[in-house]
Amino acid sequence: MTAQIELSGVNKHYGAYHALKDIDLSIHKGSFTALIGPSGCGKSTLLRSLAGLESISTGTLKIAGEVMTRVPPRKRDVAMVFQSYALYPHMTVEENLTYSLRIRGTPKAQAKKAAAEVAVTTGLSHLLGRYPRELSGGQRQRVAMSRAIIRHPKAFLFDEPLSNLDAALRVHMRKEIRALHDRLGATSVYVTHDQIEAMTMADHVVVMRAGVIEQQGRPLDLYDKPLNKFVAGFIGSPAMNFIPAVGGEDGRSLVLDLGQRQSVDLGYAVQAGRKLIAGLRPEHIAIAPPDGAMLKVPVAVVESTGAATHLTTATAPELAVVVNGRAGHFAGEMVGLNFSPAQLHLFDAQTDLRI
Q1: 241-348, which class in CATH?
Q2: How much is the pTM?
Q3: 104-116 CB burial, b ≥16 within 10 A, e <16
Q4: Which pLDDT tens digit goes with each residue over 64-85?
Q5: Which of the listed CATH numbers 3.30.450.40, 3.40.50.300, 3.30.70.2860, 1.20.210.10 matches domain 3-234?
Q6: pLDDT recorded at residue 267
Q7: Distance (Å, rounded) from C-alpha 78 to C-alpha 86?
Q8: What PROSITE patterns does the record point to (predicted)?
């Protein structure tokens, strides 16, 4: 069973602190929605409010069309997967899986059968007799997910489930979680501080800051058309470069301030004299010989990963540049930078809004 989740005008107060501010959000049935933002943005508070672990101060929460705003957690029929796994250390994997069924009065044989079926789905069949201390981090996370699946909830709520794992295992587990979501046809809400997780796993991404939804939409829409400077800088890795700029006197160029002013022909109209912030992603910059390039900059740092080379310029502000392969550049070198004006993002310098 899966369900749509609706939040309308949801607020959460902790005394004078306003943690969630007029949240309106539709999480479609069967979708994988990621809540993302910096620490303290309200994403975990929002998830806990869906689960009933935090009360909603004002507003309405509906799950599968039913108002759940004041309904206790056990009656909401949602399952939460925690960062800490929250497994019972004195119980075997099978006992951890069947615990919620047993306290509901499910016959022992039926509960064991359900555990065996879920274990096949999550690859735990050979581990049912083990204790949590005998499992790896990834295996513990699969047990935590299996314990949620066995309940057949209306929605799965994930609270940063991969943050305790090493980098390689996180990559593996995010593919497992997404594949499991697709097999179950579930409604999943996933909180993470890692925008790579959000971009690669989710159908729908919700970017939050200071208790407010800044932007929501498909991952690549947020990457291609961020509504403001905050979203532009948060989505994408390495982060977008931001350069103070002003509209050129000819109405078609942009004067960039990189310690010294450099003019770039945009090929489209921009208000003369308007103060702007130019955003340019590191992967959208190409290195070229200085003569004839759009920008001429000195190199401060060169970092090679083998597959790619990361350059940082000795400018103010500094620019990050990513090029495929081994570029062969060195600190102190003067290089040229080219980019397509179509890939330049312009934001109003006062409001930070996209223009």
Answers
A1: mainly beta
A2: 0.91
A3: eebeeeebbebbe
A4: 999 999 999 999 999 999 877 7
A5: 3.40.50.300
A6: 87
A7: 16
A8: ABC_TRANSPORTER_1, ABC_TRANSPORTER_2
